[in-house]
């Protein structure tokens, strides 16, 4: 991977939805290449809104977001396309085409490198076909190459989602609750795959979770959101589990604190 790619600067970002709901309020975050940032917070605190703002799946109302110094909030056309390509997204519901093969789903992560007509005709280079195999191997699913996505387990589908993201050759991976709905063993596989990309390839990872337990095990930094604001931001070395008791107790909900405790990081 190219040196020093994967920096995210979020400056004074606010987002008000068209119906007047405040999604984000004056967010400032500086995320450096190679960080594994976990965003925690109660339902409705703004985690998904923040993630979607980073690769501009939606526009913000105020402020700006820079990816490796490039302003994605203002970019258009080819420039926007290129910045977006460097930030791959992984979704809670996997977003696969269920009736298509694993191969086709993974290759779809590459279409941003082709003119639309070539992609539509499936005219992918030999190198890119090899790249599909390489990336499927990385998530241990090469044997599922021809299988339809709908015939895979949830954890396998999510790992196809990771392989698809890798086809973008991203410097940033954004993951919106990629493991909720998965059992502990599968959660561990998916989280370890992401950790590997972070450690071996130096990819920056920003991941939303409900589970503090997971955040404590895998992140290098934890950011807490509440009502669209950052109320917590610490490197993992400084994090004290009791901090979250305060954050969650206010909402009268302790369930987030233990989840993920049965998932051991390797
Ligand atoms: N499309 C939308 N239109 C209006 N309001 C929205 C929209 N999407 C989200 N919101 C509101 O913005 C706030 C933040 O929502 P967001 O989805 O970012 O929360 P979240 O932290 O991801 O929650 P969850 O843990 O449930 O996924 C909430 O008040 C939510 O109701
Ligand atoms: Mg969400």
Automatic annotation (TrEMBL):
SMART domains found in the cross-reference section: AAA
GO molecular function, one term: ATP binding
UniProt keywords, alphabetically: ATP-binding, Cell membrane, Membrane, Nucleotide-binding, Phosphonate transport, Translocase, Transport
Sequence ranges assigned to domain ABC transporter in this UniProt record: 8-252
Name of the protein in question: Phosphonate ABC transporter ATP-binding protein
Organism of provenance: Fructobacillus papyriferae
GN (gene name): phnC
């Amino acid at each position: 991977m190219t040196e020093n790619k994967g920096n995210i600067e979020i400056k004074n970002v606010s987002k008000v939805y068209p119906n007047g709901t405040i999604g984000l309020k004056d967010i400032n975050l500086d995320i450096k290449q190679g960080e594994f940032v976990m965003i925690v917070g109660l339902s409705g605190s703004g985690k998904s809104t923040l993630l979607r703002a980073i690769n501009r799946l939606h526009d913000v109302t105020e402020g700006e977001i820079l990816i490796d110094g490039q302003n994605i909030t203002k970019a258009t056309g080819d420039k926007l396309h290129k910045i977006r390509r460097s930030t791959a997204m992984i979704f809670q519901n996997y977003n696969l085409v269920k009736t298509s093969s694993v191969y086709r789903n993974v290759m779809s992560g590459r279409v941003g490198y082709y003119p639309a007509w070539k992609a539509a005709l499936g005219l992918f280079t030999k190198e890119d076909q090899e790249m599909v195999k390489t990336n499927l191997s990385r998530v241990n699913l090469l044997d599922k190459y021809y299988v339809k996505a709908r015939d895979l387990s949830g954890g396998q589908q999510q790992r196809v989602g990771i392989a698809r993201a890798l086809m973008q050759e991203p410097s940033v991976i954004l993951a919106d609750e990629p493991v909720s709905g998965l059992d502990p063993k599968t959660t561990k596989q998916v989280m370890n795959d992401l950790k590997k990309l972070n450690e071996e390839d130096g990819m920056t990872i920003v991941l939303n979770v409900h589970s503090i337990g997971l955040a404590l095990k895998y992140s290098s930094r934890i950011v807490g959101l509440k009502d669209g604001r950052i109320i917590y931001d610490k490197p993992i070395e400084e994090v004290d589990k009791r901090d979250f008791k305060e954050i969650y107790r206010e909402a009268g909900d302790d369930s987030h604190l233990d989840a993920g405790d049965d998932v051991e990081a390797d």
